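Exam revision sheet. Question 4 asks you to relate a sequence to its structure. Input first:
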Amino acid sequence: MKHMQCAIWTVLLSCFMATTYAQEFTEIIFYKSHEPKKQNAPFSDVVQAGNMYFLAGQIGMDQTTRTLVEGGIQAETRQAIENIKDVLAQHDLTLDNVVKCTVILADIGDFAAFNEIYIQFFTKKPARTTFAASGLAANAHIEIDVIAVK
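Answer key, structure tokens:
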């Protein structure tokens, strides 16, 4: 019995030490936007923790004009994903590095139309959560955020 207790304590101590080490020595980098008009935004476009990249949500906004693209949910979905691709490219990543997507729709009735565009881009099929909420930024129909791994 003492050997079993000793083994359990050894495993628990090892796990604690590994977790503590990871938390203390994982560098966290908060990146400003690569978009000049978003340099003073109150959030980071990307936060890097080790080899993981957490991207801020993107809507279907044309970054040059800072207006939503016209054409409804499918056009906004395409633009949001293009915006994600642009942010990923700044860190030598692609959509293939994405492991998790969170999708917020203004209207859950747009799910099928959104998904038609989404599946054209995310061919690796990252994990995904999709839900609807009212009041997205800039009256957008969709917002997508992702987590990528390098």
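Marking note for examiners. The first strand starts at residue 28 and ends at 31.
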